Amino acid sequence: MYNLNMRKFSKRLGVMPFLLLGAGLFVIGLLAMNHIVNNWWPFDVSRLDLVRATAEGRADPTLLLEAANVEIILAFLAVLLVAVTGLALPLAYILNRRFLRSHYRPEQSAALSFLAPLRQAVWVGLWVTFCAWLQMNRVLGVAVAGLVAVVLIMFEGLLQVRTRAAYVDG
Length: 170
What we know:
Layout: H1 2-13, H2 16-39, H3 49-56, H4 61-67, H5 70-99, H6 106-136, H7 142-168
Helix pairs in contact: 1-6, 2-5, 5-6, 6-7
């Protein structure tokens, strides 16, 4: 009885939980990114010559990475992951509702219908973060970004097949 009422309640709410969670993650990510960008210096202060070389377009990416404060760059990438995940979450939910049919038993569909869009939004966040990291290293290209996207899509497809096989037959 509880699962039936919970399923009706979650169906009535629709996209609102995903929209609120996504907006919350996006706002937290933007606020943290604003703090990181405005208050933390990502390079060693003794290497200000690299800032001038970057502005003149003659900076070597390896020198920039050697002078970088790794903790600040990792914090920036983590915050970027959170912000993009929040941005992609409502879209992932809408696409799941539109294109995927529920193949699960009623008592399992409420939990699974929440986890799949969340996982897919995290994949989008990981892809954008990975592309940002490659761009920081100045090695991002269309082929590399496309290849990484295809690998992540294939991995998600395998997870969907595994989940369906576990819950439809079991």
